[in-house]
Each structure stands twice: as C-alpha cells, then as structure tokens.
Design brief:
Helix content: 25-40%
CATH architecture of the largest domain: 2-Layer Sandwich
Distance between the termini: 26 Å
Structural class: alpha/beta
CATH class of the largest domain: Alpha Beta
Keywords: Amino-acid biosynthesis, NAD, Oxidoreductase, Serine biosynthesis
Largest sheet: 7 strands, parallel
InterPro entries: ACT-like_dom_sf (IPR045865), ACT_dom (IPR002912), ASB_dom_sf (IPR029009), D-2-hydroxyacid_DH (IPR050857), D-isomer_2_OHA_DH_cat_dom (IPR006139), D-isomer_DH_CS (IPR029753), D-isomer_DH_CS1 (IPR029752), D-isomer_DH_NAD-bd (IPR006140)
CATH topology of the largest domain: 60s Ribosomal Protein L30, Chain: A
Shape: elongated
Protein name: D-3-phosphoglycerate dehydrogenase
Bound molecules: 1,4-dihydronicotinamide adenine dinucleotide, 2-oxo-3-(phosphonooxy)propanoic acid
Strand content: 25-35%
Function: Catalyzes the reversible oxidation of 3-phospho-D-glycerate to 3-phosphonooxypyruvate, the first step of the phosphorylated L-serine biosynthesis pathway. Also catalyzes the reversible oxidation of 2-hydroxyglutarate to 2-oxoglutarate.
Catalytic activity: (R)-2-hydroxyglutarate + NAD(+) = 2-oxoglutarate + NADH + H(+); (2R)-3-phosphoglycerate + NAD(+) = 3-phosphooxypyruvate + NADH + H(+)
Radius of gyration: 31 Å
Number of helices: 16
C-alpha cells in the first residue's frame, strides 16, 4: 500500500485515477494536521502553499516522490529532496493557458483601470472621467522570460496589435522569429517597453531582476505585470517608483510573502492585485492534477516518470529499451563495490554494441547507485547517485567503444582504488538474462543473482572438490558454479551461486584450504 499525502487543494476529479487504485491510500490534510504520521507517507502532492523544506523532508522518512500540481517548484527544496533520493515531479504545461490568460486579463485591467472603476461603481459613484485608460494597440510589450507562458502571452498581445520585445537569454532566434517577436537585450526591453511582463522562474538570477537599478532604466509611465513569482520584481524597490509616478501602474498576482498581509504596495490605487490566481481555473486544475496523478501511478508501478525535475527525462519507449541495461548496470555497480571494499576514487563505464546507442546517462546513474548503496546508510538511487558520488569524492565517466568482442552489447566498469584497479564486464542476453562475462581479468560466465561466492585460487587439480566439501559440511547447497583462469596453472577463480548466504565461519574454513588466496561474499 502506498500512502499519498495531498496537502494543498488539488482537483478531486484529477485525483480520480489514484483513488481507483487499490494500492493507494490518499490522505487529504495539511502537513500540520498529520505531524504524527509524516513518516508513513510514500508520496506528497502539493501546489504552491505547502513549503517542502529540508526540515519537512527530514520528518518524512519514507517519502519517495513529491508531486507539484503546477509549474513553479520554488516552494520545494530540490537539493534536499535530491540528496535524499526523492523524485520531484511537476505538471509543466497544465496551467500555461490559464496563467497566460490571467496575465492578459491583468494587463488589460491595469491599463483600463477596471478594478478601480469597479470599486467606484459598487460604491455608488459614477465618475467616468476618473478612469481614462490607455489602448493596447500599437504599444510595445516587453516580455521577460519567453517560455511556455511568456510565449502564450506574446501570441495574445500580437492579436491585440502590440509589438513584442523579448528578453530571454536561452531563447533561439528561430523560435523568436516563428512566434513573431524580436529578441533584445534586457536593457533594450527595459528602455523601450510601454508594458513589461515577467515570466521567468524565481531563481538566484531572477530574484530582484526588476530592482532599483533596472527599474530606473524603464520608460517613464511604464506599466508592470508580475503573474510569475513574487520577488522577480523587488517589492521594496518598486515603492519609490510608484510614489514619484515613474511607474504608471502595477498588476500583481504573486508576492514575496503569500499572503502579503498589510503590505505597503496595497495602499497604492494604481497597484491592482489578485491572490495568486494564475492557475486557478477548473480547466488548469483538472489538467495539473491529472498529470501528477498519472505520473504518480507510473512511479508506483516502477515505470519512468516523464516530468521529473531531478531525473533525466525518459519516455516510455526509451525506458523500455534501456530497462534491461539499467538492471545490469545496478548489478555491476553492486558487485564491484563489494569486491572493491576499499576507498575508491574513480569509476569508468564503457558501453559497447547496441547499448552504446541508448540513453546511457540513466544506466550510468543506476550503476553508480548500485556501487554506492553498500557504502552509505541512506537510500541511493538514480536521483541522488551523482550527488552522493560527489560528496564522497568519487568521480565517474562514460566511454563508448566499437570493440564488442563478440557480444551484441556490453557494459564494462573499471573501478580505480588506492592500490588496486578492478574491471567487471556484463552483457544482457534477450530472453535469457544478464551475464557477467569478465571478472578481474578473467573470462567467466555467470548470472549476477542472489548469494554469490568469489574464490580466487591457484589453478590446481582438486580445488572444486575441496570447496564442495567445505560447503557440504556446512549444509550449503551450490546452485551453480563457474570457473575461469588466466592461464593453465596460474590465477584462477570460481564463482558459486549458493542457496543461502555463507557466514564468517564458512569463509574462514574456505580461506584455510591450501592454494585458495581470496574468498569474498558478493550479494547481487
Ligand atoms: N501565477 C500563477 O498562478 C502561475 C505562475 N507560474 C509561474 O510563471 C513562470 C513561468 O512559467 P513557464 O512559462 O511555465 O516556465 P518556462 O520554464 O516554460 O519558462 C521560463 C522562461 O524563463 C526563461 N528564463 C530563465 N531565466 C531567465 C532570466 N534570468 N532572464 C530571462 N529569462 C529567463 C527561460 O529561458 C524560460 O524560457 C514561473 O515562475 C511559474 O512558476 C506558472 C503557472 C501559474
Ligand atoms: O504553477 C505555478 O507555478 C503556480 O504558480 C500555480 O500555483 P498554485 O498551484 O495555484 O498554487
């Protein structure tokens, strides 16, 4: 049973696919109402109200996934989630149109002073001359951040006969041309626009993007719109520009602190506001809830999630192709880590044959996770493997080789430790399974499954019998046994697959057999 905590208001209809699953238990409560149960939840579903802090994640010890039914994830500590191997997903496009339409509605309301006029008429006044506005036709709209919402706002602006000047450092010329807008520097947009609307995420770079210095570069009489995130326009810095009339009006759907309380900006007649309503439509809420609910179902079924913030994107098609290699990678890492149970500095992974053409980032992350898992107490998975490796000073790299040595595909892992280097190579045989075909310089062939025993010995007659005797005396059944050697009479090895794990006494008894040099337990 998977327990899902839904801590913000999320569309009931969108959650329906989760409700129909017999394996999912949904609890709809605020975090503060379930303090005692926080450690029991596998998933957390939020909008922007719940703050998913490191402190909260610390308490949610069983948490595997955070779903954001919306776009902005600035309320989620992504680094803290990643560190704990918690997948973070969002619904990147379910509310785009609603947010763009709200932005446009705010912009129109701002220049025609609709909210002020509305309040006036409701107060039984009829003062037509007090609410003379401006037309949008022919005006220059400056769009800062030209992603999904910014571009939808621009389309609507063009339909209103506006010219659109865009600043987005990541926007290509081709895309801008296709959408009928022109790219400019930030300074040019600031200096030329009659109305400026911001549509970036809130990041270190965009916090305070419209602060004192940049506001001073805007045209006198400029209108500003922020339906993205509070803080992109610096609220404190804005006040003097409103006081001296440099800024003609501001429309805000979002605030640095939500709710803003008794904020000084609210006192200005030409500041119009809504309580973070950009995504608040029936349509958008159904879209985003359905998107995250479907992703959660995939996740719990062990399928890939497509809109993760902290995992490489993986479609179902690609996932199906890499699935076998993903498991092989994990086994290679796991076995190598136990064999090299010493500090290591570097892992080098080489892909050859058909696997080399696939999305190997994911396979490498799985291999890394397998390698790191026996070394760290907390969960290591594809989400946090790279971060954990970095923390432990382990570097890793991928190589691609044309040399297949007769295998249709192979993954080879070389681990560099202080005084030792170890290489293991595996292949996946369709409809048969994973095989380890090279182990520490010796060609061999065994399945990386279950309780394995590695024995390195001198190549002498009778070794197999001696090992069999010791295991038999301890009532340990051998399922399979593979032998390999570098050369006749030289270094040789056995890999045994056993029905149960061996204890220290058995290891000791095996080590005492003459000509046996090393014995290691390997769990795969
Ligand atoms: N008010 C509301 O209810 C809603 C607000 N939002 C917010 O709207 C914003 C935009 O969302 P989307 O368009 O979906 O995101 P997006 O990721 O599609 O677009 C963001 C764009 O900002 C650009 N960008 C990033 N850093 C920049 C910088 N320093 N300067 C200029 N451009 C920069 C990116 O290149 C990208 O094109 C986000 O902050 C999101 O949280 C989204 C939905 C509803
Ligand atoms: O999706 C976003 O980024 C939003 O800002 C919408 O926030 P909400 O889900 O309405 O709390």
């Amino acid at each position: 049973m998977f327990r899902v905590l839904v801590s913000d208001a999320i569309s009931e209809e969108g959650l329906a696919p989760l409700r129909t699953s017999a394996h999912i238990d949904i609890v709809q409560q605020k975090v503060s109402e379930v303090e005692e149960q926080l450690h029991t939840f596998d998933a957390l579903l939020v909008r922007s109200a719940t703050k998913v802090t490191e402190e909260l994640l610390e308490k949610m010890t069983n948490l595997k996934i955070v779903g954001r039914a919306g776009v902005g994830v600035d309320n989620i500590d992504i680094d803290a989630a990643t560190k704990r191997g918690i997948v973070v997903i969002n619904a990147p496009n379910g509310n785009t149109i609603s947010a763009a339409e709200h932005t446009f509605a705010m912009m129109a309301a701002l220049v025609r002073r609709i909210p002020q006029a509305h309040i006036s008429v409701k107060s039984r006044e009829w003062n037509r001359s007090a609410f003379v506005g401006n037309e949008l036709l022919g005006k220059k709209l400056g769009v800062i951040g030209f992603g999904r919402i910014g571009s939808e706002v621009a389309k609507r602006a063009r339909a209103f006969g506006m010219t659109v000047h865009v600043y987005d450092p990541f926007l290509t010329k081709e895309r801008a041309e296709k959408l009928g807008v022109s790219i400019h520097s930030l300074d040019d947009v600031l200096a030329s626009a009659d109305i400026i609307t911001v549509h970036t995420p809130l990041t270190k770079e965009t916090r305070g993007l419209l602060g004192t210095e940049n506001l001073a570069k805007t045209k006198k009489g400029v209108y500003l719109v922020n339906c993205a995130r509070g803080g992109i326009i610096d609220e404190q810095a804005l006040i003097p520009f409103l006081e001296n009339g440099h800024v003609a009006g501001v429309a805000l759907d979002v605030f640095e602190q939500e709710p803003p309380g008794d904020h000084p900006l609210l006192a200005f007649d030409n500041v119009i506001v809504t309580p973070h309503l950009g995504a608040s439509t029936v349509e958008a809420q159904l879209n985003v809830a359905t998107q995250v609910a479907e992703e959660l179902l995939h996740f719990f079924e062990g399928q890939p999630v497509t809109s993760s913030i902290n995992l490489p994107a993986l479609s179902k098609d690609v996932y199906e192709k890499i699935q076998s290699f993903y498991h092989l990678g994990r086994k290679l890492g796991l076995i190598a880590s136990q064999f090299m149970n010493i500090p290591v500095q570097e892992l080098s992974v080489t892909y050859a044959g058909t696997v080399a053409d696939l999305e190997t980032t994911y396979i490498t992350r799985s291999l890394l996770a397998g390698f790191l898992q026996p070394r760290v107490a907390s969960t290591v998975n594809e989400v946090n493997a790279a971060m954990v490796a970095k923390e432990r000073g382990i570097t890793y790299g991928e190589k691609f080789s044309d040399e297949t040595h007769g295998y249709a595909n192979s993954i080879s892992l070389t681990v560099h430790g202080e005084n030792k280097t170890f290489t293991i190579k595996g292949t996946h045989v369709p409809n048969y399974g994973d095989r380890i075909v090279h182990f520490d310089g010796v060609a061999i062939d065994f399945a990386p499954e279950g309780h394995l025993l590695y024995i390195q010995h001198q190549d002498r007659p009778g070794m197999i019998g001696k090992v069999g005797n010791v295991l038999g005396a301890h009532d340990i059944n051998i399922a399979t046994m593979q032998v390999g050697r570098q050369e006749a009479g030289g270094k040789a090895m056995m890999i045994l697959s056993l029905d149960k794990p061996v204890d220290d006494a058995v290891l000791k008894a095996l080590t005492q057999i003459a000509d046996i040099e090393t014995v290691k337990r390997l769990e795969a």
